[in-house]
Amino acid sequence: MLTKRIIPCLDIKNGRTVKGVNFVDLRDAGDPVELAAIYAAEGADELVFLDITATVEKRKTLIELVKRVAAEINIPFTVGGGISSIADVSALLNAGADKISINSSAVMRPELVSELAGEFGSQCVVVAIDSRFVEGEHIVHVSGGRIATERRTLLWAKEVEERGAGEILLTSMDHDGTKAGFANELTAKVSGSVSIPVIASGGAGNQEHFLDSFTIGLADAALAASIFHFKEVSIPDLKNYLKGYNIPVRIEK
Amino acid sequence: MSVVIVDYNAGNVQSVTYALERLGVSPVLSADPEVIRSADRVIFPGVGEASTAMRFLKERKLDEVIKDLKQPVFGVCLGLQLMCAHSEENNTDCLGIFDVQVKKFEPTLKVPQMGWNNLEHTTGPLFKGIEADSYVYYVHSYYAETSEYTIATTDYVNTFSAALNKDNFYALQAHPEKSGKVGERILQNFLDIK
Q: Which residues form the Glutamine amidotransferase domain (chain B) (predicted)?
């Protein structure tokens, strides 16, 4: 049976993990590859690397990082952040990334989704959607969730599916950082209206929140960052907990 | 041992290269028939679309080369589908190594199947040491039907061929290079096939 995926997200700046990592057993607390290897060994199903490097020159460090991750990690990983062209994607995939995620650049120019799907295949095109609830509507936001657009979340999700996205990474900006649970109502609506997988993101605070994201939110995968980095939730414990509620999860023997 | 990965512009072969390197093997990427024929092991990878891939193979006459190989050959993902007789993906005639049809999943579940699913009814040397119901990583919208060549199955929408074998030809629908320790063991098992 296809399992629900648990996905840790690593924020990357200048090739290093950004703050908020509390692993005493890391030799180098800023090395994304070492952290990624730990997550892979613990049973993470995929990894997401979100690059928040500000300058173009320093983005070259991302390519070097992707090569190191691909050489050492034996599970799939997605790279996102600042990707806006076929050339960007080509460089990341050639370096060994399995998927890329685009966000603001897709909103600004939706044809990019179609172009990437045509060039590289839908399987590697993840569209990240940052959504915020504004005056009774779920509205797509860009630039790290700061700027509201004219787009409604549900319609945008359907559009990117039609344009060839292979997966949707749905982040509720209202829930992100709250540790009060995922946006299950919104996630269920999006998941129910597209035929591609939906990754729930934003709001994970405990194991029960993951259970709810699958049973109520109908998510295909759930992503979190800080609660894994600070070991508030461990992946093996989480998977055993979910298994206890009959959620299909991958537990390596 | 010389291992050649067939280079036919079909998606990301870098991951397969890295996975083999983790096993201590340095594969050669090649589209040269002589290099492919003389290898101890041949890996036929693939991510992409069937008709484009078949056209590319035929233009370089690699279709005939692959069919005639005598050493162990391992098709992965699209590679498995191309080794079958025919694919519904753009109505494509494939290599015909396995007399098996490749069909599109009915959309009763999300398509593509993306993520980890378990192997059932595994048999033969490719799965030596792999425990029952081990998980492997899938990304695909098309599947090979079960047949006399099926050496493992997985259930998604319906039961399909997770792996196929005929003589020296082996194939896996999942991505062993991305399937953790289980995937590494499958790759190692392929390298160990006599």
A: 4-191
Closest chain B C-alpha to A135 CA, distance in angstroms: 32
Q: Is B69 helix (H, G, I), strand (E, B) or coil?
A: coil
Domains, in order of start, for chain B:
3-192 (3.40.50.880)
Q: What is the pLDDT of residue A18?
A: 79
Task: Tell me which of A66, A126, A187, A250 to substitute to probe the interface with B (most B C-beta atoms closer than 10 Å).
Answer: A250
Q: Is residue B51 less than 8 Å (CB to CB) from chain A?
A: no
Nearest Cα of chain A lies from the Cα of B45 at a distance, in angstroms, of: 14
Domain at A5-244, CATH from 3.40.50.970, 3.20.20.70, 3.30.420.270, 2.60.40.10:
3.20.20.70
What number of CA atoms fall less than 13 Å from residue A75's CA on the CB side?
27
Give the pLDDT mean for B76-86: 96
Please give the pLDDT value at position B43: 97
Q: How far apart are CA A42 and CA A36, in angstroms?
A: 10
As a whole number, mean pLDDT of residues B19-32 equals 96
**pLDDT < 50: residue spans in chain A:** none
Q: So where are chain A's domains?
A: 5-244
Which residue of B107, B155, B184 is in closest CB contact with A74?
Answer: B184
Query: Is the CB of residue A197 less than 8 Å from the CB of residue B110?
Result: yes
State residue A25's pLDDT score: 56
* CB spacing of A253 vs B131 below 8 angstroms: yes
